[in-house]
Design goal:
Length: 364
């Protein structure tokens, strides 16, 4: 992470006189002459303080005659607030400490199963073995009950990617792929865009996205486990990716400001959420006006009941928690998305398919 900007912001608030200036400007625009009188400081000292506050984006200045008039920059302050929150979240991981308390006992247990599964997966990759989306129980079961690492999920689904892009990735990024698709192959990323990958795991889709959006673009990865975040950051460092950042948090409570990304991608993760309406709402919140999604996920036939889905595989194995095609479309529509397309690509278990989900959002 680049610490220059957070350091600039903390510096802006690290002086008592500057805090007094902000308190005065809260009352409304003030001429420099008024501030000089109120604070009883020299012109050069005031100029020094105002330069720091203006550069931080907290205060704006306008010239009128021989005097400069200062006021609070409300939009800038909102941005500063979001940047500081994001910094604290990234450095401490304390973004969603209360999320667990909002869940009932059953959902807490499901969430713990998912966390344990992905912690185990990260450790396996670090230890030198390949992982898969399904739990050990699913992998050992009959094919109709679960699915193991095969041509139906994982790294093999990235064979559509150019060999140049794949060769540039660390081997551990490929080994840690737990997905049911290849969202970067269908997301139509453009140079300069900002991308968010939900449930970024070992970082494969973040690193591929970073290549696509180029040096003027940026790719965020969001994951809830320290083990996957550690693996992803190691992979990013090994790949020499400088336009990426991995954040700790839940996909139901995304630690990014409103309207901050152009596209949200995800690979076989939303089916694992215990609160999917919250996920769709959060995706809509962080997308810019006209933003879009390019998601790979497992979707169930409309005729399958929840009980029938649970009988086909575990929650942590990406099966039991899958939405039906109708439920997926309704959830996105309720969150404000339109032009929703859900296209099945291949069957994973009977009646349940890996699918590509695309949709757009307009806020005005």
């Amino acid at each position: 992470m680049d610490y220059q900007r957070p350091a600039q912001l903390f510096k802006a608030f690290a002086d008592e006189s500057r805090l007094q200036i902000l308190a005065l400007l809260k009352q409304g625009e003030k001429c420099a002459c008024v501030l000089l009188e109120e604070l009883d400081i020299s012109q050069s000292t005031l100029s020094h303080h105002m330069k720091i506050l203006c550069e931080a984006g907290i205060v704006t200045a306008r010239r009128e005659g021989k005097w400069t008039h200062y006021s609070l920059d409300c939009s800038g302050i909102d941005q500063v607030k979001a940047e500081l929150e994001q910094f604290v979240i990234a450095e401490t991981g304390c973004c969603c400490g209360s999320k667990d308390t909002e869940l009932d006992a059953e959902k807490k247990e499901l969430l713990q199963q998912v966390q344990d599964r992905y912690i185990e997966a990260a450790k396996k990759v670090t230890g030198g073995s390949q992982s898969s989306c399904c739990s050990p129980m699913d992998c050992c079961a009959e094919p109709t009950v679960g699915f193991a690492a095969s041509d139906r999920l994982g790294a093999k689904l990235y064979t559509q990617q150019s060999s140049t892009e794949i060769d540039a990735l660390p081997q551990d990024a490929l080994l840690a792929s737990l997905g049911c698709g290849n969202p970067t192959a269908v997301a139509e990323l453009k140079a300069g865009e900002t991308v968010l990958d939900l449930g970024s795991g070992g970082g494969i889709d973040v690193l591929l996205s970073a290549m696509r959006v180029g040096e003027h673009g940026f790719a965020y990865g969001l994951d809830m486990t320290d083990e996957m975040l550690e693996l992803a950051r190691k992979n990013a460092k090994e790949a020499g990716a400088t336009n990426v950042e991995f954040l700790k948090g839940y996909i139901e409570d995304i630690p990014l400001p409103d309207s901050s990304v152009d596209i949200v991608i995800s690979n076989c993760v939303i089916n694992l959420s215990v609160d999917k309406p919250a996920v769709f709402k959060e995706i809509a919140r962080v997308l810019k006006d006209g933003g879009r999604i390019g998601i790979s996920d497992i979707v169930a036939d409309n005729k399958l009941s929840q009980e029938e889905r649970r009988a086909k595989g575990s929650y942590a194995g990406c099966i039991a928690g899958a939405l039906s095609f109708a439920e997926y479309e309704a959830g996105l529509s309720t969150a404000g998305f339109h032009d929703i397309q859900i296209t099945p690509t291949h069957e994973v278990v009977s009646g349940m398919s890996a699918s590509i989900i695309k949709a757009y959002i307009h806020k005005h």
